[in-house]
Amino acid sequence: MSEKLIEVVDDAGIVRLTINRPKALNALNSAVIGELERVLVELEGRDDLRAVLITGAGEKAFVAGADIAEMRDKTPEQARDFARQALATFKRLETLPVPTVALVNGFCLGGGCELALACDWAVASDNAVFGQPEVQLGVIPGFGGTQRLPRRVGPAMALDLCTTGRKIDAAEALRIGLVNGVMAQGELEAHAEELTKQLGGNGPQAMRAAKQAIHDGMDQDLDSALALENALFAFCFAGEEQTEGMNAFVEKRKPNF
Ligand code: CAA
Question: How do beta strands 14-19 and 51-56 pair?
Answer without folding.
Answer: parallel
